[in-house]
Structure formats: structure tokens, C-alpha cells
Amino acid sequence: MVNDTASSPFLSIRGLRKTYGSAVAIDDVSLDIRQGEFMTFLGPSGSGKSTTLYIVAGFQDPSGGSVQLQGRSLLSVPPNRRHIGMVFQRYTLFPHLSVAENIAFPLRVRGKGQSEIAAKVKAMLKLVHLDQHGERMPGQLSGGQQQRVAIARALAYDPPLLLMDEPLSALDKQLREEIQLELRRIHQETGITILYVTHDQEEALRLSDRIAVFNQGRIEQVGTGRELYEEPATRFVAGFIGHSNFLPVTVDQRDGDQAQLSLPDGSRLSGAALRCHARTGQKAALMVRPDRFRLARHKPEHAPGVTVKVRDLSYLGDALQVHIVTPWAQELHVRQPLSPDAPCAWSIGDTAQLSWDIAHSQVHALA
């Protein structure tokens, strides 16, 4: 639902900085969001994602930088006049008002007429699939239903921008996944621009058009889920998005943006993509995703191979997670798909040959 026709960004964040005395919460955060985009701020606790969201909402003042919505500066506009919808982790519904009255509240505050309010409430209830729940009280609803009411209320007055701060973190896994699907549907049906904050990488990958990965107050990388997973720009992104193995290597030779490497057992590798400024002779880390590894009984002919021991096995339903140990005593994780035609072929204590396609691995700086 992204609108690519606009010549200027719908929401523009430039050089945003926020300090608390000598502590820096965010530093030089810059980002452009397109109209209709679902943009997620992803990162660990304290990385600056919520602080950035609260500055856009007007709940905090920045120490520097600018925020413009549709070409107009927001920083001098009070929060209640920014016309921005907000959904929090806690549902913040009025317990003494019915579902319909909760949704109607922001419309009444804005002085809308009774017929317009009734029509909008009906439309919002239908949008969030709560058509038959308008007369119920919030306490009579499940957590997922209450969060859908909060979303309906935030959308009722047609804000151009919806901000969502960890809205699903209080829900259990199954319910969280159900509401994620609802959010995808609502975004597709309404075309509203959404800024979404989460620390859950799987949630970010499932929901987003693009993801901004935050770390220590800065944005490390912005991209689609596939771009971040397949082409992480930094060691932090490589470790935070998806599960990664980092093998210790020495850079033997550089050839443009690729390198020849040595593993601790002396095995030589060539053609790995460089994602750092490692010099010849320098130690680095080779990232390989668990699903990119292959285990076999015999050494492969045309791929790097290492003899490993199977240390443990974890059955995950559709896949098997194999914990292996290398000759240099490093534990690695391998994820192998399972099917009736391909049952588990390994036992604890087995010797195996570990291989992978070097084109799907990258050289990053040491942590």
C-alpha cells in the first residue's frame, strides 16, 4: 500500500537527537517514510526506537533535528493537534464506556455530528471484525479484542499517520500472530501510513514493508525484511535479524569486496562477501545462517567442508535443529527441514561433514 508517486517523503525525520544530561538516547536519526508504508522500528530495549516514536507523536521534545509530516514541521505543534493516531501496549480503553462509545470518543471530542459518528463507528467495528460487539464493555472482551478496539478508535478520525508502540507484546504467541494478520489486512484495506515499534524480529518481518534496525540510539540499516536477512550491512544486524553462526576466520587476501579466508583448522575459503574493512592478516567473523548449512556423511566435492560432531538435536516440527561442535570446539547451529520423505538422519555423537555455499556467507567485524 505504498504510494511512490509523491516527489517528497510523506514523513521526514532528519538528524534527530535526544539527550538526558550526558546520556544520549538517540543520535542523528534520519529516515524518510513513504505514504501508505508500514515502517517498523526494530531493536533491543533502550536502542532508541520508542524515543523516536514519541518525538514524532509529540510526547517528547528532541534535543536537535526535525520532523516533517507532508512538508510541515511537527515540532511546534502540540500532540493533540498533530492529528496522529496512537496505539500502545496497554489498550487504554475507557472501562466505563462500551466498545462503540470508546470508538466514538475521538469523534465526539472533534465535534462530529451524531449521524457521522454512528456511521464511522459502524465502519470501524466492521473493519476490525467486531460488528456484534459494539454494546459490550471492554472488560467483557479478550485481550486481542480489546487491542482491536484500540486500533479502531485510533483509526476512527482518519489520521494520516498511525503510531504503534509494542501493541502486541502483552498477548500470547497464538493471539499475537492472529492480530498480526489482522493488522496486515487493516493496513492493506485502509492504506494508512504506520510506524510500528517492536523488539520482536519475527513480528517485524511478518508485518513490514521496510524495517529500520536501531542499536544504541542510531539506525544501523533500513531495508525490506529480505534485504536485512540476506544482506545485513553490519555485524549487529546480522546477529539481530534471524539466527546466525559466526565462524572465526583470518583474512588471507582481499579482492575488491570479496576475501580469501582461513578457518582455525586451516581450511581455506574463497569468495566470501566483505561487510567490514578487514585488512590482510586481520581476524574477522564469517556469518552463516543455520538454514544455509548442510550436513552429510561424506565430504562435499565443490564446497567448503569441516568435520564436526553432533552434540545435540532439537525437534521443531517442520525442522530439526542440530547442535554441532567444530574441531576448534565452537558450537554451531544447523537447521534442517523435516518431512515424511526426509526423517531425522542423525544421532548424538555422530561424525558429519558440514558444508555451505560460500556465496551465502559474509565477513563481518569481530564483536
Structure description:
With 367 residues, the chain is of the alpha+beta class. It folds into 2 domains: 11-238, P-loop containing nucleotide triphosphate hydrolases (Rossmann fold), CATH 3.40.50; 243-364, Nucleic acid-binding proteins (OB fold (Dihydrolipoamide Acetyltransferase, E2P), Beta Barrel), CATH 2.40.50. The protein is 23% helix and 35% strand. It has helices at residues 49-57, 99-109, 114-127, 143-155, 173-190, 201-207, 225-230, 235-240, and strands spanning 11-20, 23-33, 38-42, 64-69, 72-73, 84-87, 161-165, 193-198, 210-215, 218-223, 245-255, 258-262, 268-274, 283-288, 294-296, 305-315, 319-325, 331-337, 351-355, 361-364. It has a 6-stranded mixed beta sheet with strand order 6-7-8-3-9-10, sandwiched between helices. Strands 11-12-13-20-14 form a 5-stranded mixed beta barrel. Strands 15-19-16-17-18 form a 5-stranded antiparallel beta sheet, with no helix packed on it. β7 (161-165), α5 (173-190) and β8 (193-198) form a beta-alpha-beta unit. It is globular. The two termini are 38 Å apart.
Distinct helical segment count: 8
Task: Give the domain tally.
Answer: 2
Q: What's the CATH C level of the largest domain?
A: Alpha Beta
Beta-strand percent range: 25-35%
How would you concisely characterize the structure shown here?
It is globular and about 75 Å long.
